[in-house]
Amino acid sequence: MTETTVFPEGFLWGGATAANQVEGAYDVGGKGLSVQDVLPHGGIGSPRSEGPTPDNLKLEAIDFYHRYADDIALFARMGFKTYRFSIAWSRIFPKGDEAEPNEEGLAFYDRVLDELEKHGIEPLVTISHYETPLHLAETYDGWVSRDLIGFYENYARTLFERYGARVKYWLTFNEINSLLHAPFMSGGISTPKEQLGEQALYQAMHHELVASARATRIAREVAPNAQIGCMVLSMPVYPLSPDPADVLQVMKSDHANLVYGDVHTRGVYPGYFLRTLHEKGIALDITDQDRDDLTNTVDFVSFSYYMSIAETAGPAKKVSGAGNIMGGVPNPTLEASEWGWQIDPVGLRIVLNQFWDRWQKPLFIVENGLGAKDQLVEVDGVKTVVDDYRIAYLNDHLVQVGEAITDGVDVLGYTSWGCIDLVSASTAQLSKRYGFIYVDRNDDGSGSLARHPKKSFHWYAEVIRTNGASLTS
């Protein structure tokens, strides 16, 4: 039987991780501390510690730093076309404000790229993924300070000069629109959230957007063949009722989330955002140079997708599941994961169409997955996880990606989040597992770190081999 698929030839199938959630080796090779090293219980509203503590699983994580070659070989067995990973800023600039980079850190990522090239896997690199150097957080109050633009510019230029000929796809900031909701994790802002004024938060947002645009300009100078993308957290919003007041509330909620992509793709702040600032009494410090920088718009838009929310103008209980960065009203028509994230495959088709219609830029789904408590079992003498629930979740979401492609949306690729089990960003647990590969480590730090392919490992390999033709509607 001939296999047919709507996924285009060259579609970039793969998986995604972040340095702070997989690498470990937090004090190896000249690496400095990042904000993640003092967030032992996750980054969404959890208190920080004074320094690294034994209960912070990210300090060792899954030891990708020493096991990267074997892990990449497992990705290759699945047939990955691309692997999204982040570079730890404090591995390259331990404090963040040095003039010269740490050669040991640069050499580590050279070795990672060597392995990817050996297996024919395209790297997709995130420059800053929730791991601002701790020194920048404590000394400058993170992105509240305009100084961070220059430090980030130096960091990005260093990466483009070192790896520009080897890396085609780059993302400037992970989920840049999370800054207002998780200021320490996302923006390295040390001022406690309850003491942080909106003026400072929006100024930090502006600084990140300028830094992202400057990095885009530098890449075009240093690595002209590179493609530069932004990365946003997507969350489609539905009205709880057809009441126009609820629909208007949805529009406002959407605007608060879409402004980041609007600036990245259009190069100016939209009128609705300027109105928001005016009504809040906020006057941003925006220089003429900033305005010129922002015109360096991205080549593509990447995003994470995990859930949708509903909104209403009236009183309603907000989503309360652990690790929700952006709150909303639960949708009574949807089921939720063990962590309270509502499961909505159709929402992925909706957001793909919304982004394409709005921005007319190629789209890249760089995070999507199901966090669940997996059970390691033995099947025919082999340790594995029978994760049919994950297969069903991913299948249903990928079917909707195919529908969006049929709608005419230009989709570059799909990288499932946490393709190998890692430490959760929101809760700092290992028991919240996303991967196709089980890692033998537990929330108390015990375990051998052995790797075991799950049932979904073989399912995803077939999806990639058939370019999506094996998906079931």
From TrEMBL:
Pfam families per record: Glyco_hydro_1
GO annotation (BP), single: carbohydrate catabolic process
GO terms of molecular function: beta-glucosidase activity
GO cellular component, as recorded: cytosol
Keyword Protein biosynthesis: no
Residues forming the catalytic site: 367
Alphabetized UniProt keyword annotations: Glycosidase, Hydrolase
Keyword Repressor listed: no
PANTHER family per UniProt: 6-PHOSPHO-BETA-GLUCOSIDASE ASCB-RELATED, GLYCOSYL HYDROLASE
Family statement: Belongs to the glycosyl hydrolase 1 family.
Record-given protein name: Glycoside hydrolase family 1 protein
Lineage start: Bacteria, Bacillati, Actinomycetota, Actinomycetes, Micrococcales
